[in-house]
Amino acid sequence: MASSTGYREYIRRLPEKNSLSREDPYAAVRNILLTQQGVVIQAIQKRKELVADLESFFLGNKHIIVIGGESGMGKSLFGAELRTLHQNVQYVMPGRLRTQLSVITWDRTHQVFFEEISTILGTTVPLPRGETHIKARNLISSVLGDQIRFIKKYIGPKTRIIIEAPLIGFRGESLFEELKEYKNEMLTFIMHSPKMRYESFKKGRLMLTSGQPESMASIREHLLLSITKRRKVSHDYQDHIVKEWWAKRIQHWGRGALIEWDPDDNRSALEETVAQFMKANIAPDVLSPRPIGRFTRNHIESILYSQSNTDRFLKMLCTNSK
After folding, report:
1. Residue 72 near residue 201 (C-beta atoms within 8 A)
2. Bridge partners of residue 67, in order along the sequence
3. Rounded (to 5) percent helix, strand, coil in the chain
4. In what side-by-side order are the strands of the sheet with 256-260?
5. Across the chain, how many H-helices and E-strands are there?
6. How many CB atoms lie under 10 A from the CB of residue 202?
7. In which element (H, E) is residue 278 found?
8. What is the mean pLDDT of residues 32-55?
9. What tens digit of pLDDT does each residue of 205-247 get?
10. Contact assessment for residue 174 and residue 165, using Cβ atoms and an 8 Å cutoff
């Protein structure tokens, strides 16, 4: 999509609607995938099997993509590229092959959680800059599962779903156990980009809903402690340890892959891709379509009010807990 001639010109170069897409829809999807500039094409160049995986998401029996990894590794960027790809695939596909897309993000659900706490307490409760209380993380993780069930039941069983969640430290990893019935429909991609994480850590996060540097440091510290049982690990070795740990985790979650990428491999193309997202209103940290956002807000409100001694419980959740 990242063409200097703009999004409309790019659309004109897609396979003619109902021509190639009717004769060989998989070839049409492949053509769109291979014209990308950004994280997706980097990932495909390093792992050719990714083309078949994404084809199965857009046209086959894989209806759910889970994007995981530490904060600052590129989850939102990869998710935005997939959403744009879905738009482009729908543009060229005949009606019988078109699908709806739903998007769930941990960051946005986390934000709604604290907005509802603020409403109940009658005062603005800011997002924690460090670790969110573990009980809050567990509740938010359970909401992610409820969001998926809502989509499957009320939006459509074959709706394509993109989920962005860290999948560490009680941030969504319970999904795989909780949603066993959908395991065969799921693809899991873990983003790993030490360079991107370093830049995010030094420059700060653009989105306030994203994990901030304090949170990034805390998550990394506790992750390394859980892996190595040590609090001190050399910086040069940290990324290797984390990468190997993720590779083993993915094996237990079914079909998926570790997506390694480096923004310096094609910095100009990456920047142009981000600019195109902005032009096309592909916003990060969303709950889409609108019914998911409404369900999430009402559902979280009900969960919070169901707790005994609600005010005390909510004030506890507003504290940082590691």
Report:
1. yes
2. 164, 189
3. 60, 10, 30
4. 101-105, 160-164, 64-68, 186-192, 256-260
5. 15, 5
6. 9
7. helix 267-279
8. 89
9. 555 555 567 778 888 888 888 888 876 788 778 999 999 999 9
10. no
Hey, what are 165's tokens? 């969640």
3-state secondary structure of 262: coil
CA pair distance 106, 151, nearest whole angstrom: 16
- pLDDT for the residue 256: 92
The gap from C-alpha 99 to its chain's centroid, in whole angstroms, comes to 19
Put residue 309 in one of left, alpha, beta given phi > 0 → left and psi -120 to 50 → alpha.
left
Question: Residue 148 — pLDDT band, cuts 50, 70, 90?
Answer: very high
Which amino acid is located at 274 in the chain?
Answer: V
216 close to 197: Cβ distance less than 8 angstroms? yes
Residue found by looking up tokens 């897409």 in the block: 21
Question: Where residue 141 falls among pLDDT bands split at 50, 70, 90?
Answer: very high
Best CA proximity match to 113, nearest among 306, 322, 314? 314
* Residue 157, amino acid: P
Question: With pLDDT > 70 as the criterion, what percentage of the chain qualifies?
Answer: 88
Question: Is the C-alpha dihedral spanning 82, 10, 14, 46 positive or negative?
Answer: negative
Residue range 259-268, pLDDT digits in tens: 999 989 888 8
* Residue among 293, 249, 257 at smallest CA distance from 105: 293
CA distance linking residue 219 with residue 225, whole number of Å:
10
Which two tokens mark 187? Answer: 């693809």
pTM exceeding the 0.70 threshold for the entire prediction = yes
Q: Burial-class residue 207 by CB neighbours within 10 Å (0-12, 13-18, 19+).
A: middle
* AA letter at 14: L
Q: Exposure string (b/e) for 104-126, b if CB count within 10 Å is 16 or more?
A: bbbbbbbbbbbbbbeeeeeeebe
Q: Please check the confidence at residue 10 and state whether its pLDDT lies above 50.
A: no
Tokens 């160049």, residue located: 45
Element (H, E) at 219: helix 213-228
